[in-house]
Amino acid sequence: MTIPSSLTAAGKWLLGSGIHERIGGVARYYRSDLGRNAAVSTEITGYAASALVYLTHVTGERAYLDRAIGIGHFLTREAWNPELRIYPFECAADRSGVEPLAYFFDCGIVARGLLALWRETRESEFLDNAVACGRSMARDFRAGGAEYHPILKLPAKQPIERDSRWSRSPGCYQLKSAMAWFELFEETGQQEFADWYEGVLESALATHASFLPGDPDEDRVMDRLHAYCYFLEGLLPVLNRPSCARAAAGGVARAAALLRQIAPRFERSDVNAQILRFRIVADAAGVLPLDRLLAQEEADSLARFQGRSFDLRVNGGFYFGRRGSEMMPYVNPVSTAFGLQALAMWHAHRAGEPAISRQMLI
Question: What is the pLDDT of residues 334-344, one digit of tens each?
Fold first, then answer.
């Protein structure tokens, strides 16, 4: 595929901005107003591994794969807690100053990053750890039936008290994380992984309609849009099923409408990227014809979030969001990963090139 300049700049940011910390993991974001990174997050590190594997495929440049392998080894050898057999939320060189928590969602993202590395390198360490992580998700977070606690307190693995925030309650967004189980089934043939995914899918289909707007505060609705897009992405393995195709068609239309309603006040770059990516993949699957005008609007909005600066910690990265006309001071690895992929996919679509595989979606 032809390589857009936005992807090249974003790839350089991931490699050279300093967002990849010396301990081996990737920081949650860079605060451009304070000139410092947040703590290293296992979830963000997992996303970075997936993004770097994708960049390897698109560009053919070995530097991306080398960095991805190093990140994968950090996850399997440093971040993974072998005594508890679970991935913690954050990591620090001295093991202090981080919250002793583990997130169901984060573990699924880490597992998918490791699976991306396994498919690229066939290094058994990545598959073995992804399997262990997937089993931890099913064992440690189960709340009963197909419900999974969103957050555990370590080391006791006790669920924390839930509240109204989407990330602190179970919900349809967990289907994105459960995709790790579907992919583990594809790689190992172990039926329990498929069964666990199907359980979350059934629950998500039954509850997703009530997830939006979900809050009277429009700022929180924008945040919930980001989470709802995870539900849409989690449908990708089963879009050929009529019930899933109907949920996808109605869901993306509703999400896009809310995005445009709230954006003048508060807009997240990742929501634009997620909707655009989903439109392209769903169109390629023959499930949802792509609305080119709306897709172009989302691509144009997304492109405005990419940093342009002499500061290497900013240039090429994507800002998390904006309030009114002012960018918020968070240059974010996930926003960057989603943004570079969405714009590259849109560029390829307009050029008549084939869409990426479902497994390659970051």
Answer: 999 999 999 99
